[in-house]
Amino acid sequence: MTAVDEGPGGFRQAAARAFQRIFMLFADLKAGLVLFLAADADLRADGTSCYPQPKRR
Question: 10-40 burial by CB neighbour count: b if 16+ within 10 A, else e?
Fold first, then answer.
């Protein structure tokens, strides 16, 4: 569906939808970054985990 199909005011609605999609994309990226940083916080400076791992046989 293009802005032309929607008649008068259609461009404004299409622009609002596009802006909303971009905003939601940034919100998703920010949430992913927070999760990544939270997972990264479990690592020590040398890259080993703060939590003891079971010994592999």
Answer: eeeebeeeeeeeeeeeeeeeeeeeeeeeeee
In tens, the pLDDT along 6-17 reads 566 778 888 899
The answer to whether position 13 is within a domain reads no
15 domain residue, yes or no: no
Tell me whether residue 52 is in a domain. Answer: yes
Range of the domain at 48: 20-57
pTM: 0.45
Terminal Cα distance for the chain, rounded: 59
**Given CA atoms 12, 18, 19, 24 in this order, what sign does their dihedral have?**
positive
Into how many domains does the chain fold?
1
